[in-house]
């Protein structure tokens, strides 16, 4: 019985697959690659080499704004002005260093960009699919030209290069590839490149001519956690350090090229043609001048464009322009298929730009030769539309009378050629497109015929389905023979079509026509109605790029609209119970749909009218905080909600009592825990040293979740799928018929009670559906998991509404009949025919779940993280399968639920009639789902074919077609599996003989954590009273205005000034002075802090202004004392700089002495006299006990700064002003920063970092105790001395608390660090 219906569904699936195959082959063909090679033994087709060697470093996903000195507004602290070395060299050596905004042709995937960067040609859209597997480059390229010229190429980095180029392209022993697809590994590839790069650069005799290094860390950070994350800053800082070292090794005859193969979108992904994805950085540097005659270059050559949200235009080029430029600079021929134009600045070596003229001539001749060859090929007709224009422009080149006019004509010719070929980057085979569309249309019609026929046959479908199965098979056989036979006489007219294509077209076409002819239903013609209107509108929407772009909103509207008829039926329900049931579940359905719609990811075209909520932000692909909070509760609530709905029909027994309370929550929690641990690892919440436990731990959780679903859940369900509870008892009825309760022997009769019998089919299939959800759950990110839970509740609500509406229809039919009493049996006599109106919400819910789980019909929305759910590295076939499961699992899940429309609340009696009826209903439900999605595919395919020359075809229409095709495959597969395997297993069962028992799993233990412990500085100051000035806010605002008006600060310092909280520092340290004094002190602090950032040796004008006002009211001895402290501050800075230059680490005693002066704290103590109007004479000031007290206070304040510098890089994007930056300890110590208390303690006492931190804290604590001890000796001093000591106390406690309030050290996490006392170290 089941095999006959399944065979028809499988046949429909086959028709869809062949239609997709033929259409896709016609729509997404690769371009024609010419096999010719550029060669000129006499050297006439190239220039004399300008450079003997070249170093080409590719920083994957290096977007242009990562390089530019003029980033967008507002700049990101995580990726703007971090990789600054190219900016610095370009500003100081403009003739040696050039930065370009390079346009990367889409698709912006690494493999395609490697092809473009080496051949100068254009990639194709379908080539993107080979990004997982690679495809050899057989056309002429830079590497083949270098090999033919006898030059040796060394390579290290992304192994994609070794998949597209043969081994003979690289020098023996100088090829070091690394796995490129493990996006969770941020460092291995980069460290491998560094490990092999520098030995080659430092060895002048190393056997290489060109080095190619491909770094992947920036790209992997973008994919994993997005560009707006501290990890991106750390990675770009590493790249900046690498470039600095590379430049230090460069010889005068070596050219350095640094570029990104593409950019990345706001979330860190790429693959499409968005402006952020196609904008890549390009930096070219040489120790000898790159350009001298730039003035001779016509301004028309120097194209510029403005990066999004930026205000300054930048020099822009095509990325493939690098190919002819590199070839001529190295003295090799330009690759044959190149369409790029030389970059003029690189050939302006003389004031008359003669070299540029020769380079342009060679470039134009190469492009001309390529076009002539292409024109004479079999595909040459594709250039017809642009050929006349190109010929006219070439004539203009020949006719030009001046050098400049000829150059401009050459540029026009090359750009016209590029534009024409770019429009032809994917060829269309209209014949194959037509064949595919024909099959899609005829197949949809055949599916509609089958759907209608199953509705007419009701329970009599089995024999008819068996006959139709043979009709399909004979039709396929006849069609195959006809297709193969007709191919040979027609092959001269079938361009690009082979015999296999004809067979694949003929078999489904003839069989579809046979089905339409033999299964013609009584009501054949499709009449538009309110039930089919959503499908009609949805299909027509694909003719508009706007509706296609906003399809997620369209689906939400259609989905809510499709539920209106059911809700209206509730108002007319004849009983209150049905009325409230329909209206209640309709409201639940609408609420779930609206909540799902909150989760969005935005297409580029939807900005600025769309706000991404699936992730924490559009540029941070982490789960939002509400989802982190709701993930675990939703994983627990969902099984309870399912069981609560089953309890309505008493079906929460048997297998449901095992799966729902135990297995399903365990699986969902494990899937949820996987992504929580992924977030903790990615965000380094516990610090960078926990990957060793977090990565294996979450992998184990995912494997346990998916494994338990398959090995336990499905296995148990297969053995005992029913959700029934059976009990027996002696029949005891105290009525007049009581004698009937005993048998002939006088023994009581047994009464058997079966709970859940009325929904035996539906509840069992629901458990199987829950297992499918459990398998999908770990592959879906946290927000998507919540959305899937809402989709499941919405689906069950829709099923309940559908069941109730059927009850209403049955009652209405009974009341309208001649025997109204039949309403008493309406539940058993109602029809179970699935209507298309009932299927439409399920089909739309599949697409709504697709959008709600963070997907769009665009390449960048692919969630690559899911590839590493089961493994920590790229593993075939699991990684690609998980990406597919993540992207199209929602469609599979919702399609798998379609049989519930036929199975829900149907009692398994009488047998076998009940099983036959629900089996036919399940087949009809599956056909309806297939029909809806195949019609959508047909509409999308027609629109894509009709608009194939539309400007938005590759941005909107082609991706939507591919998404529709993949969705249809997922839906068809789910229907075949669900109807072909799940339904027959249920309908062939008998009630459970006894109940099952199951023990709950043990409770998981929590994992311990550890972090770098900081000294608890606040507790050291518990003996000091914290006070603050009442005018803190007004003085802070006034001081900021003063700082901005005096033009002392640069732009970065101006932006960072409010976060410094210097007004708060002054208010805490000098809480009793008057407002004018507090304002002047705050202004001094502004000058002092930024003065220390620069050069303390030179005196800024702003200091003179402050000093003039200070000195007016203070005695000469105070002024002389302050000047001595200022001079000591400057002298200490010189000594620190000298020791850093000589890599001298001072001993602890020397460091302590010098730190008192270099910190500038003595001047802060001098300001205490000014703030309190004290008169401390030199004699009193030099008192030994007071001097010791002052020294204690100075050490406390200076060392406290050192003890808190470590966390700022992990918590705050701002740059620290203090030189004692422990967070950058490894980097700064390596570059000579030796005056650091932690460095001194580690060197002198042989301590690790944590030990040195603890030792520094101990020093501060002991010094506070010494301060308090010395203070007792001065308890009987004069009033001025006691007030001076109180001022010292105020500075100590005020500066300590300020450390946690300013954003320079802890960013927004100061309160947390002050309370908890630990921080996270960034990765080394």
UniProtKB/TrEMBL annotation:
One of its GO terms (cellular component) is endoplasmic reticulum membrane. It is a multi-pass membrane protein. It is found in: Endoplasmic reticulum membrane. Keywords: Endoplasmic reticulum, Glycoprotein, GPI-anchor biosynthesis, Membrane, Transferase, Transmembrane, Transmembrane helix. Pathway: Glycolipid biosynthesis; glycosylphosphatidylinositol-anchor biosynthesis. SUPFAM superfamilies: Alkaline phosphatase-like (SSF53649), Terpenoid synthases (SSF48576). Coiled coil: none annotated. InterPro entries: Alkaline_phosphatase_core_sf, Isoprenoid_synthase_dom_sf, Phosphodiest/P_Trfase, PIG-O_N, PIGO/GPI13. GO terms for biological process: GPI anchor biosynthetic process. The chain crosses the membrane at residues 6-24, 432-452, 472-490, 502-526, 554-573, 580-601, 621-642, 654-677, 700-726, 754-776, 782-799, 882-907, 927-947, 959-983. It comes from the Eukaryota. Belongs to the PIGG/PIGN/PIGO family. PIGO subfamily. This is Uncharacterized protein. It comes from Fibroporia radiculosa. The lineage of its organism: Eukaryota, Fungi, Dikarya, Basidiomycota, Agaricomycotina.
């Amino acid at each position: 019985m089941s095999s006959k219906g399944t065979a028809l569904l499988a046949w429909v699936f086959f028709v869809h697959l062949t239609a997709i195959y033929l259409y896709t082959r016609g729509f997404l063909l690769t371009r024609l690659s010419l096999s010719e090679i550029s060669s000129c033994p006499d050297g006439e087709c190239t220039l004399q080499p300008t450079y003997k060697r070249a170093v080409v470093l590719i920083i994957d996903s290096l977007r242009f704004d990562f390089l530019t000195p003029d980033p967008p507004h507002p700049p990101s602290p995580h990726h703007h002005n971090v990789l600054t070395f190219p900016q610095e060299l370009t500003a100081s050596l403009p003739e040696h260093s050039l930065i370009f905004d390079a346009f990367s042709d889409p698709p912006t995937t690494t493999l395609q960009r490697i092809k473009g960067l080496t051949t100068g040609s254009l990639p194709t859209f379908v080539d993107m699919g080979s990004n997982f597997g690679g495809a050899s480059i057989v056309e002429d390229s830079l590497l083949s030209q270098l090999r033919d010229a006898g030059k040796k190429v060394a390579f290290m980095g992304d192994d994609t290069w070794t998949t597209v180029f043969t081994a003979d392209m690289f020098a023996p022993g100088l090829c070091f590839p690394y796995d490129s697809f493990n996006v969770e590994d941020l460092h291995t590839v980069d460290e491998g490149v560094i490990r092999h790069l520098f030995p080659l650069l430092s060895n002048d005799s190393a056997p290489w001519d060109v080095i190619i290094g491909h770094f992947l860390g920036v790209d992997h950070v973008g994919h994993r956690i997005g560009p707006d994350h501290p990890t991106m800053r750390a990675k770009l800082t590493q790249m900046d350090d690498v470039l600095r070292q590379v430049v230090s090794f460069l010889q005068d005859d070596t050219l350095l090229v640094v570029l990104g193969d593409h950019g990345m979108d706001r979330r860190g992904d790429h693959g499409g043609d968005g402006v952020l994805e196609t904008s890549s950085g390009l930096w070219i540097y040489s120790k000898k001048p790159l350009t001298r005659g730039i003035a001779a270059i016509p301004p028309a050559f120097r194209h510029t464009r403005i990066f999004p949200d930026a205000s300054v235009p930048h020099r822009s080029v095509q990325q493939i322009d690098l190919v002819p430029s590199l070839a001529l600079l190295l003295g090799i021929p330009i690759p044959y298929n190149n369409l790029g134009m030389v970059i003029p600045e690189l050939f302006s070596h003389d004031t008359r730009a003669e070299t540029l003229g020769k380079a342009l001539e060679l470039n134009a001749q190469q492009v001309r030769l390529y076009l002539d060859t292409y024109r004479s090929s079999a595909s040459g007709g594709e250039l017809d539309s642009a050929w006349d224009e190109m010929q006219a422009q070439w004539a203009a080149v020949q006719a030009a009378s001046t050098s400049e006019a000829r150059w401009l004509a050459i540029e026009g010719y090359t750009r016209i050629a590029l534009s024409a070929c770019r429009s032809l980057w994917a060829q269309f085979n209209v014949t194959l497109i037509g064949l595919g569309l024909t099959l899609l249309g005829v197949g949809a019609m055949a599916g509609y015929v089958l759907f209608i026929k199953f509705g007419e046959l009701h329970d009599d479908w089995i024999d008819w389905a068996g006959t139709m199965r043979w009709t399909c098979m004979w039709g396929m056989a006849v069609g195959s023979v006809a297709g193969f036979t007709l191919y040979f006489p027609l092959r001269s007219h079938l361009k690009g079509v082979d015999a296999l294509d004809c067979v694949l077209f003929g078999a489904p076409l003839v069989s579809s026509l046979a089905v339409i002819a033999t299964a013609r239903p009584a009501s054949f013609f499709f009449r538009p109605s309110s039930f089919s209107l959503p499908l009609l509108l949805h299909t027509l929407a694909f003719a508009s790029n706007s509706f296609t772009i906003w399809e997620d909103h369209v689906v939400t509207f259609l989905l809510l609209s499709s539920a209106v008829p059911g809700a209206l039926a509730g108002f007319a329900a004849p009983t209150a119970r049905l009325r409230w049931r329909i209206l209640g579940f309709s409201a639940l359905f609408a609420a779930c749909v609206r909540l799902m719609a909150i989760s969005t990811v935005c297409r580029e075209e939807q900005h600025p009218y769309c706000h991404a909520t699936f992730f924490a932000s559009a540029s941070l692909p982490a789960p939002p905080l509400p989802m982190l909070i709701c993930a675990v509760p939703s994983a627990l609530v969902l099984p309870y909600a399912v069981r609560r709905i089953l309890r309505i029909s008493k079906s929460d027994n048997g297998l449901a009592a095992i799966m729902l309370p135990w297995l399903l929550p365990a699986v969902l929690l494990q899937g949820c825990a996987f992504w929580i641990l992924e977030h903790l690892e990615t965000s380094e919440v516990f610090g960078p040293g926990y990957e060793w436990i977090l990565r294996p731990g979450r992998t184990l959780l995912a494997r346990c979740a998916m494994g338990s679903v398959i090995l336990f859940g499905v296995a148990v369900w297969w053995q005992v799928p029913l959700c029934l509870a059976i009990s027996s008892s002696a029949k005891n009825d105290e009525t007049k018929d009581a004698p009937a309760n005993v048998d002939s022997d006088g023994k009581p009769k047994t009464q058997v009670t079966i709970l859940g019998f009325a929904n035996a089919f539906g509840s069992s299939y629901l458990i199987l559906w829950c297992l499918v959800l459990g398998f999908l759950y770990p592959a879906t990110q946290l927000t998507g998991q919540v959305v899937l839970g809402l989709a499941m509740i919405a689906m069950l609500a829709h099923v309940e509404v559908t069941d109730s509406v059927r009850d209403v229809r049955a009652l209405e039919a009974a009341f309208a009949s001649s025997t109204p009493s039949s309403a008493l049996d309406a539940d058993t006599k109602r029809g179970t025919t699935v209507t298309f109106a009932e299927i439409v919400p399920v089909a739309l819910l599949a697409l709504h779940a697709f959008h709600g789980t963070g997907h769009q019909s665009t390449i960048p929305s692919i969630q690559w993280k899911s590839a590493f759910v089961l493994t920590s590295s790229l593993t075939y076939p699991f990684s690609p399968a998980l990406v597919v499961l993540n992207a199209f699992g929602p469609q599979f899940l919702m399609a798998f639920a379609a049989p519930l429309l036929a199975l829900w609340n149907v009692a398994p009696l009488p047998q076998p009639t009940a099983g036959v009826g629900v089996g036919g209903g399940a087949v009809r439900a599956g056909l309806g789902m297939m029909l809806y999605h195949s019609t959508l595919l047909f509409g999308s395919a027609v629109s894509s074919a009709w608009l194939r020359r539309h400007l938005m075809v590759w941005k909107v229409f082609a991706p939507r077609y591919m998404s529709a095709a993949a969705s249809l495959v997922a839906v068809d597969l789910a229907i075949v599996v669900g109807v072909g395997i799940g339904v027959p297993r249920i309908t062939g069962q008998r009630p459970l003989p006894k109940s099952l028992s199951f023990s709950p799993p043990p409770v998981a233990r929590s994992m311990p954590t550890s972090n770098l412990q900081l000294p608890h500085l606040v507790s050291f100051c518990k003996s000091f009273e914290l006070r603050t000035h009442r005018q803190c806010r007004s003085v802070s605002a006034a001081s900021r205005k003063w700082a901005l008006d005096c033009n002392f600060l640069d732009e970065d310092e101006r932006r960072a000034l409010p976060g410094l909280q210097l007004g708060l520092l002054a208010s805490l340290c000098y809480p009793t002075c008057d407002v004018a004094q507090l304002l002047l002190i705050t202004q001094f602090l502004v000058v002092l802090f930024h003065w220390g950032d620069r050069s303390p040796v030179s005196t800024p004008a702003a200091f003179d202004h402050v000093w003039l006002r200070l000195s007016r009211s203070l005695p000469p001895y105070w002024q002389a004392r302050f000047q001595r402290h200022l001079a000591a501050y400057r002298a200490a800075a010189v000594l620190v700089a000298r020791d850093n230059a000589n890599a001298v680490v001072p001993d602890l005693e020397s460091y302590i002495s010098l730190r008192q002066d270099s910190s500038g704290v003595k001047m802060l103590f001098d300001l205490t006299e000014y703030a309190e109007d004290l008169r401390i004479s030199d004699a009193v000031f030099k008192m030994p006990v007071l001097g010791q007290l002052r020294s204690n206070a100075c050490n406390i304040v200076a060392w406290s700064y050192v003890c808190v510098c470590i966390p700022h890089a992990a918590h705050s994007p701002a740059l620290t002003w203090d030189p004692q930056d422990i967070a950058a300890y490894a980097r700064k110590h390596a570059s000579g920063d030796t005056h650091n208390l932690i460095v001194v303690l580690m060197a002198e006492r042989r301590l690790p970092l944590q030990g040195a931190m603890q030792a520094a804290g101990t020093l501060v604590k002991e010094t506070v105790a010494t301060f308090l001890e010395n203070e007792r000796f001065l308890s009987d001093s004069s009033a001025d001395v006691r007030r001076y000591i109180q001022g010292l106390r105020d500075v100590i406690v005020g500066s300590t608390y300020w450390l946690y309030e300013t954003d320079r050290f802890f960013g927004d996490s100061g309160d947390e660090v002050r309370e908890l006392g630990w921080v996270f170290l960034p990765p080394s």
